[in-house]
Every structure is written in C-alpha cells, then in structure tokens.
Amino acid sequence: MRKVVLRWKTSSLRGAQGISEILKICERIEILGHLSITKQGVTQLAEIKLKDGKKVEEFNNLDNFEVIKVHEENEDGVLVSLFCNHNLAVSAIELSNIHIHPPYGISEKNGMEMRISGLSNSVRRFIQLIRIVLPPDNISVQTFQKENNDNVWKTLLTERQVEVLSHAIRKGFYSMDRNVTLKQLADEMQMARSTYGEHIRRAEVEIMNKIFNDLN
User: Least crowded by CB within 10 Å, which of 22, 29, 31, 197?
Assistant: First the structure.
C-alpha cells in the first residue's frame, strides 16, 4: 500500500496542454469532490476563482472541460459541477486500486498538488503514466509496508481489537488443537460472547485485507 504526493510548479503547468489554458481563465481551481465517474471522464465539484473580466462559461471553450451547472457564487469564487476528460482524469479512472484524494487543484500562485493512494503496483503504473502526460516536479512516496509492523497494526486496529485479539492468541484460540471457546474467552474478559466475537471478526477482516494488499 502506498500514499503519494505529486507536486508541480506553476512554471511547469504553463506549458502543459489543457492546464495552461485554465490559468488564463482563473487564479485557482480547487476540486472539492468527485460527483460521478465514468469511462469517459469524471464530474467534479469545483470552486473556481476567476480572473477579472473572465466568466466561468469560458471553461466550455476548453477541450477537456464542460460546465454542467453553476451552483452559487460569492467572494471565494464560483461553485460549479464540472465535467473533465483530461488525460490525468482518464488515466486515474482506467487504473483500478488507486484513489485520488480531494481536495486538490491548480493555483497560479502555488502550482498543483495531488494526493493518491492505493496498491503499490497500481500506484507505480499511475506514476509512470503521469511522467508521460505531465511530469511532476516532485514526488513524495510513503510505502506503508516499510513501516514498523507494530505501528501498522496499531493504525489498522482499535485498542479494544488489539486487546481482545491478543487475549485470544494467548489462550490458544488460533492453535491447531484449540480447546477454548469464544464463550470462555468472553467470560474471562467479562464481555458478552457476541461483543467479544464482533471485536475478533472485525480485527480479522482488517488483518486479512492488509495481507491481501501486501500480497498484491
């Protein structure tokens, strides 16, 4: 599992097809969320700070964008539903097992930053595509597999799940010749059998998901 932060300077964006045109219309655009995703592109909820004399409808003149609906406008900008089929968006859609984390956007002052996470191989392929479409100025990668194992499990599991699971392991619940029942374990911890069992089940689900992600 990996988490990656991609950053572009404004100077790098100005030469990028489709993105440099955006900066001619607005000072910044921030994608607040994804309303729908199809093979053709993604419908985004976006806040746009227009430059003086510019109108949000000018996005319709760009090759990869279409304004679907203007929701509201105030001093912070214009809130719109915006359809996007830019190569960046399409690349993210076509690759499974990755997630792009809103909010993200483009700023005349700060450039662009995008955060993604997903299975290591999928993230690696996405970065390879990004290097072709729009090479980032900086890539920061965090690989969760390389973290201290104790910290990983404490991040995935609640304190109660760790406590219950540790108790079950100590008492031989996961031994091949198991001779202890959930009822006995629950009684020892002064918990209802159903409550104890639910903690065990949820912990097992998190552990198996982590193992599956590591294997892939």
Answer: 197
Spatial contact of 182 and 44, defined as CB atoms under 8 Å apart: no
Tell me the per-residue pLDDT of 54-80, one tens digit each, with 9 for 90 and over.
999 999 999 899 999 999 988 879 999
* DSSP string over 69-130: EEEEEETTEEEEEEEE--HHHHHHHHSSSEEE-SSEEEETTTEEEEEEEE-HHHHHHHHHHH
Q: Are 133 and 36 spatial neighbours (Cβ–Cβ below 8 Å)? A: no
Token pair for residue 126? 């996405």
Q: Are 36 and 45 in contact (CB under 8 A)?
A: no
Tell me the C-alpha distance between 14 and 41, whole Å. 23
186 pLDDT above the threshold of 80 = yes
pLDDT per position as a tens digit, 138-148: 988 765 554 44
User: Strand, coil or helix: what is 23?
Assistant: helix
State how far the Cα of 14 lies from the Cα of 36, in Å rounded to an integer. 28
pTM of the predicted model as reported, rounded to 2 decimal places:
0.63
